[in-house]
Write a structure and sequence with these properties.
The protein is built from eleven helices and nine strands. The protein has about 300 residues and is an alpha/beta fold. It has a domain at about 145-280: 3-Layer(aba) Sandwich (Rossmann fold), CATH 3.40.50.1970. The strands form three sheets. Strands 6-5-7-8-9 form a five-stranded parallel β-sheet, sandwiched between helices. A two-stranded antiparallel sheet has the order 1-4. It has a two-stranded antiparallel sheet with strand order 2-3. Helix 7 (about 160-170) runs parallel beside helix 11. The chain is globular, with a radius of gyration of 23 Å.
C-alpha cells in the first residue's frame, strides 16, 4: 500500500512537472503510520531536496550525445561535497566528522544553489517564491526591486521601449543607455566594467543585425560575471528582412547564452520589450556563459 501511494504521488508530481517543461528524474517520500493506523505522508514532497529535476529541452539535447543534463536540485551541492572528498570519509570516525564540521562551503556554491532552487521553484509554480508566499500562504514577504540596466543600439529604438519602461517605473530600479556595439566597442567595454556588472539583470535590444545582446553577454562573461542574465530584444525594423536578421542574431547565438522567451524565440518589437521587462522582474534565471574556444592564428592544417 505504501509503495502504491508513493507511486501515485510521484506520478502526480511528474505530470505537473511535464506541463512545466520539466522531467522528474527521481524522487523519494517519507511515509509512516499514525497511532490510529492511518497512513501519513510526512516531510517534503517534490522539492529539489528530495527530487531530481531536468529541463526537458536540455535532456533531449544531452541524450543526443549520450549524456545527462545538469539537474535542477541539490545535485550541485552533492557534487561539491564529492569534489571535497566527503564521500570518502567515514561517518563513524570522529576525526572525519570534525573535518566535515569545519568545512567552509564557498559562497559561490551557496549562491548557485540558491539560484537553482529559486529557478526550479519558479518553473514549477510560475511564481517567484516571495510572490507564492504572499499570494498562496498569506505571508508578508517582499523582495527588493531588481537593478535593471537597459542598453539599446539606437535612439530610434526608444519608441519601442515606452510600455516596458512604464512597467519598470513601478517595479524596478532601472537606467536606459544607448550604445551601438558596432561603432562603440571601447565605450561598451568600459560601460560594462563600470555599470553592467552592478546590475541584477540586463535587457539589451537592437534592430537589424542585432549583435548587441550577444556582445553585452560576452563582455559580462569576460569580466567574470556570467551569472548576470541578458535578455535579448529584437527591435522591429522597416522590412521583414531587417526583422528576421534582428531575431536570428539573437536566437542563433551558439549555446544560447542570451535569454529568450519561453518558446525559445527572441523578444520582438514593442510588445516583446514589454514582455522582456516583465521577465526581468518576475522570472528566475540560471547563469549562462560562452564556452571557451581558443583562437588559431595563421595557417594550419
Amino acid at each position: 500500500m505504501h509503495e502504491r501511494l508513493a507511486l501515485q504521488i510521484a506520478g502526480a508530481i511528474s505530470a505537473h512537472a511535464e506541463k512545466c517543461g520539466i522531467i522528474l528524474a527521481d524522487t523519494k517520500f517519507e511515509i509512516t503510520v499514525s497511532e490510529d493506523g492511518c497512513i501519513v505522508l510526512v516531510d517534503e514532497k517534490g522539492t529539489p531536496d528530495s527530487s531530481r529535476f531536468w529541463d526537458s529541452k536540455a535532456w533531449k539535447k544531452a541524450q543526443v550525445k549520450g549524456l545527462l543534463p545538469p539537474s535542477l536540485d541539490k545535485q550541485y551541492v552533492r557534487k561539491y561535497g564529492k569534489d571535497a572528498g566527503i564521500d570518502k570519509l567515514d561517518p563513524s570516525n570522529p576525526e572525519h566528522l570534525a573535518i566535515v564540521d569545519n568545512l567552509c562551503v564557498p559562497s559561490s556554491v551557496t549562491d548557485m544553489t540558491t539560484r537553482i532552487y529559486r529557478y526550479i521553484f519558479w518553473r514549477l509554480t510560475g511564481m517567484q517564491i516571495e510572490v507564492y508566499q504572499n499570494k498562496m500562504m498569506g505571508m508578508a514577504t517582499s523582495r527588493r526591486k531588481p537593478r535593471v540596466e537597459i542598453v539599446i543600439g539606437s535612439e530610434s529604438d526608444r519608441p519601442q521601449t515606452t510600455d516596458g519602461l512604464d512597467y519598470l517605473d513601478e517595479t524596478a530600479d532601472y537606467r536606459v543607455s544607448v550604445i551601438s556595439c558596432h561603432r562603440n566597442k571601447k565605450p561598451l567595454r568600459s560601460f560594462s566594467k563600470k555599470h553592467l556588472i552592478q546590475a541584477d539583470i540586463v535587457i539589451a535590444g537592437a534592430g537589424m543585425a542585432a549583435a548587441l545582446p550577444g556582445d553585452v553577454k560576452s563582455e559580462l562573461c569576460m569580466l567574470g560575471h556570467p551569472e548576470i542574465p541578458v535578455i535579448g530584444v529584437a527591435f522591429k525594423g522597416q522590412t521583414e528582412d531587417a526583422n528576421m536578421a534582428a531575431k536570428l542574431c539573437i536566437e542563433q547565438l551558439p549555446e544560447s547564452p542570451v535569454e529568450l522567451t519561453q518558446n525559445g524565440t527572441a523578444y520582438f518589437g514593442k510588445p516583446g520589450f514589454h514582455d522582456a521587462c516583465i521577465a526581468a522582474v518576475e522570472h528566475e534565471f540560471l547563469p549562462k556563459a560562452f564556452s571557451p574556444k581558443p583562437a588559431k592564428i595563421g595557417r594550419f592544417n
